[in-house]
Fold this sequence. Notes:
The protein has helices at residues 31-49, 74-93, and strands at 2-9, 12-19, 54-59, 64-69, 98-104. Helix 1 packs antiparallel against helix 2. 37% of the residues lie in helices and 33% in strands. It has two helices and five strands. By secondary structure, it is α+β, with helices and mostly antiparallel strands. Strand 3 (54-59) and strand 4 form a beta hairpin. Strands 3-4-2-1-5 form a five-stranded mixed sheet, covered by helices on one side.
Amino acid sequence: MITVNFTYENKEIKKVSVSGHSLYDKKGSDIVCSSVSTAVIYSIRLLEANEEKFTFREDEKKPEITILVNEVSSLTNLVLDNLKILLEDLSKDYPNNIKIKEALK
């Protein structure tokens, strides 16, 4: 199962951690994994293109990717809130393959 953790500080997303495999289908045919990966990478690229202050780290061996917000902005909030909505929609369609968690920092 893919687990997505959103960590909040002052009602704003400060960290997003995505880990695991959806196990929906075999590698290369897994539409859940592909959807999650696309949403996360698209969000990172959008933040990078607008020179937002954040960092991300990726560990392909686990698999895991983490986005850390260094400085909150309206665009960062918009992008990460949208990512959360997209992943929540996926988790409703595939509840056995993706789980969303939230925590306060």
